[in-house]
Amino acid sequence: QATRAYLDRIESLDGKLHAYHEVFAERAMERARDVDAGKLTGALAGVPVAIKDVLATQRGTTTCSSRMLEGFKAPYRATVVRKLEEAGAIILGKTNMDEFAMGSSCEHCAWGPVTNPWGENRVPGGSSGGAAAAMAADMCAGSIGSDTGGSIRQPASLCGVVGLKPTYGRVSRWGLVAFASSLDQLGPFSHTIADAALLLKVMAGHDPLDSTSANIAVPDDLDDVDIKPEKLRIGLAKQYMSDQNDPAMNEAIEKAKQVYQQLGAEIVEVDLPHTDYGIPVYYIVATAEASSNLARYDGVHYGHRTTQAEDLVDLYSRSRSEGFGDEVKRRIMLGTYALSSGYYDAYYLRALKVRRLIKQDFDSAFEKCDAILCPTTTGPAFKMGEKTDDPLSMYLNDVYTVPASLAGIPGVTLPGGFADAEGQRLPLGIQLLGPAYQEAKLLRIARCYE
Ligand code: GLN
């Protein structure tokens, strides 16, 4: 019944929202019947979930919302997909995203943009906007996204749902199409912290197929979010409390601070002096890695192949020109430039050094507090088309999410309030950041606010 209900909802709403690229209705019902017959059991038996189209699934295609991978059928499934299926989850379909996970609005999507369920002229955020919109519109019971510089947390904020980016290394990236390998991490969207914890517990763990997945045990009580953290210290950083933020966002943080105070937490001030370098460092590291990762799409190894080529070089060049969208091309050019000889030391190497300083900021901050409370975004969902002609203003949108990505630490976004934007009531997400591999505690802290 649950699977049928979600499929019906997709049927009636997704024509407008466009969160899904593909829906596996028949297969989902087959699996649901197996659950009813007791043939399929596990922690997620019968739970209908949606998967961002950046993860390899054996069913359907894996396109990353790119013409480059149109019709691409993965020969294997991602570890995360396997774990979800083995736990009994029912995969409803694949969700739309910014092409190759590059973007903050889901407007860079080869099959057309995704709409925010809270307002038809508003973006859902990105790049996991389809997964966030599907969650917000109750077109799934949980969904999976990827977060390289904020792609789970930012759309969660703009769509009013919970979004969790785990510690880098907590979840296997095997079968996740690579954007920036030192930053990419998979995580869940949900309505509640308890659901996010359960999904993470299923997804997490060491995987010999991913050399960067950590051999650190996943706590058995990870999903026990009602354990109350003791002697709680919440950190606030002045670098995140700009008066450029929408006033409603600063009010949401103030309200959350009061809630924690009432619960007996100590509020401490922490200093994250390198916050402002987050955006420039991220857009050098991420584009450099992307330019290398995307070299494989040449029309020969993988992906779209032109029908017009005159010789081999022309085949590469035309296939890539036809297959990639503008934002992806921009990133490849930026990254290739940053890595080119003569510029490597000035840009890439320097960015790596500043990345280390950003990580050290967090290390010192977590000596004084258990979690940092901060905004996820400066404000609510922006209008479609508002930032498409100005890539820099789109990039600046990630100011509060990229530092945690660069440091590899976990972060969770949860609904924190509403902003009034030209008469529209739009959700806002607050963010809690915690030390590496402390997701269990971070989620318990988040649960106290919920
Ligand atoms: N918006 C950021 C970017 O465009 C983050 C994307 C992501 O986390 N995948 O790179």
Automatic annotation (TrEMBL):
Residues 2-443 form the Amidase domain. It is an enzyme of class 6 (ligase). It catalyses: L-glutamyl-tRNA(Gln) + L-glutamine + ATP + H2O = L-glutaminyl-tRNA(Gln) + L-glutamate + ADP + phosphate + H(+). Keywords: ATP-binding, Ligase, Nucleotide-binding, Protein biosynthesis. The active site is at K52, S127, S151. Its EC number is 6.3.5.7. PROSITE patterns: AMIDASES. The keyword Ligase applies. Gene3D superfamilies: Amidase signature (AS) domain (3.90.1300.10). Belongs to the amidase family. GatA subfamily. Allows the formation of correctly charged Gln-tRNA(Gln) through the transamidation of misacylated Glu-tRNA(Gln) in organisms which lack glutaminyl-tRNA synthetase. The reaction takes place in the presence of glutamine and ATP through an activated gamma-phospho-Glu-tRNA(Gln). PANTHER family: GLUTAMYL-TRNA(GLN) AMIDOTRANSFERASE SUBUNIT A (PTHR11895:SF151), TRANSAMIDASE (PTHR11895). Heterotrimer of A, B and C subunits. HAMAP family: GatA (MF_00120). This is Glutamyl-tRNA(Gln) amidotransferase subunit A. It comes from Natronomicrosphaera hydrolytica. The gene is gatA.
